[in-house]
Design brief:
Largest sheet: 7 strands, mixed
Number of helices: 9
InterPro entries: Gfo/Idh/MocA-like_OxRdtase_N, Gfo/Idh/MocA_oxidrdct_glycsds, NAD(P)-bd_dom_sf
CATH architecture of the largest domain: 2-Layer Sandwich
Protein name: Gfo/Idh/MocA family oxidoreductase
Number of domains: 2
Oligomer: single chain
Organism: Paucibacter sediminis
Number of strands: 13
Bound molecules: nicotinamide-adenine-dinucleotide
Order of helices and strands: EHEHEHEHEHEHEHEEEEEEHH
Structural class: alpha/beta
Keywords: Oxidoreductase
CATH class of the largest domain: Alpha Beta
Distance between the termini: 53 Å
CATH superfamily of the largest domain: Dihydrodipicolinate Reductase, domain 2
CATH topology of the largest domain: Dihydrodipicolinate Reductase, domain 2
GO molecular function: nucleotide binding; oxidoreductase activity
């Protein structure tokens, strides 16, 4: 693979713009070609990034010579179709989460990836976080249980408003229950971390609250799950004064690990001590980009596969559809 990796981006909303900014700081990933179905979004992006070129369509972008990878940052409905087009063109594909709520189509896509040995991953950003490394060290399959046996996991989320202020420009899909809502958009990241460490979770009971309009996304969720025999409790709501309050508590027999603010704030209470605390430094968005470069190079990487993202989505949709006990 060449030193500079040329990337085409489809979807230039909140997340596409964010990723474009992050890529400015990376030595190898170079965004070159962009496309958005909304001409105003495309024009605004080109004005802000005159170094980029616009394609005439998603298909034209994907067929352009010289690209090494495709990044898909549209809402979920287009993810699988665009992924297949990227694979047809021989591109490595990084797709935004949630991958899709169409499980049958997702399974067919995963079968193709495995059959054709394609390069594909989903952008759960906690995959490269120091917090996830700490959890693996403490509770992963290869861990020597330095904090004792895991007894319980709690996930707590609260949002002063949904969508959050920084997503005010996002499309209406984000506020609607068909594709949006905080369970898919935010809780999915923590379910990813849970399942990466403990394996598949089973939903035992769940109660989502919805507005009466029949259209808007959930405003609250309480649920009980079990993963690797460990009880997992979720309490999430739209309410309170904090724009984006998220915490995950891992309670073990000797100590507790609490991860707050997207795993950037990790605190440990009581006795046990994690080995290799150096691993808690230096990970984050740039590390995720290094993993993406590894995917493009065809090397091993820590990004979630499409199969891992499907497993997350199966848990998420079960949470949203489980009738109240
Ligand atoms: N990984 C993360 O941390 C993270 C954070 C926020 C959002 N996301 C995900 O990123 C994706 C995009 O979210 P967003 O907040 O940027 O949404 P958004 O509504 O702000 O932007 C989506 C953009 O995609 C464009 N679009 C829609 N359909 C298209 C198509 N078929 N072809 C080309 N362009 C199309 C829209 O015009 C819009 O500009 C979602 O899947 C979301 O869940 C991930």
């Amino acid at each position: 693979m060449p030193e500079i990796l040329n990337i085409g981006i489809i979807g230039l909303g909140v997340m596409g713009q964010r990723m474009l900014s992050r890529m400015q700081g990376h030595a190898r990933l170079r965004p070159v070609l962009v496309w958005d179905a909304d001409p105003a979004r495309l024009a605004a992006c080109l004005q802000q990034h005159p170094e980029l070129r616009a394609a005439y369509s998603a298909e034209a972008l994907i067929a352009s010579p010289g690209l090494h990878g495709l990044y898909i940052a549209t809402p979920p409905a287009a993810h699988l179709h665009l992924s297949h087009l990227g694979f047809d063109a021989g591109l490595a594909v990084l797709c935004e989460k949630p991958l899709s709520v169409d499980f049958e189509a997702t399974r067919a896509c995963i079968a193709r990836i495995q059959r054709e040995k394609l390069r594909a991953a989903v952008n759960f950003s906690l995959a490269s976080s120091a917090g996830l490394s700490a959890l693996q060290l403490a509770f992963g399959a290869a861990a020597h249980m330095p904090l004792g046996a895991l007894q319980e996991v709690q996930i707590s989320l609260a949002f002063a408003a949904w969508p959050r202020p920084w997503q005010a420009q996002a499309g209406s899909w984000l506020a609607e229950r068909a594709e949006g809502g905080f369970t898919r958009e935010v809780l999915s990241h923590f379910i990813f971390a849970l399942q990466r460490v403990l394996g598949p979770a089973q939903v035992l009971a769940a109660a989502a609250q919805y507005p009466a309009d029949g259209l808007s996304a959930e405003t609250g969720l309480r649920a009980e799950l079990r993963a690797a025999g460990v009880p997992v409790r979720i309490a999430a709501q739209v309410g309170g004064s904090v724009a984006d309050d998220n915490r995950m508590l891992w309670r073990a027999s000797e100590a507790e690990l609490e991860l707050r603010d997207w795993f950037t704030n990790v605190t440990q209470t009581r006795h046990g001590e994690l080995p290799q605390p150096a691993l808690l430094q230096g990970a984050g968005p740039l590390a995720q980009l290094d993993q993406w470069a590894a995917l493009l190079d065809g090397h091993s990487h820590a990004l979630p596969s499409y199969a891992e993202a499907l497993a997350v989505q199966e848990t998420i949709e079960a949470l949203l559809s489980t009738p109240q006990a």
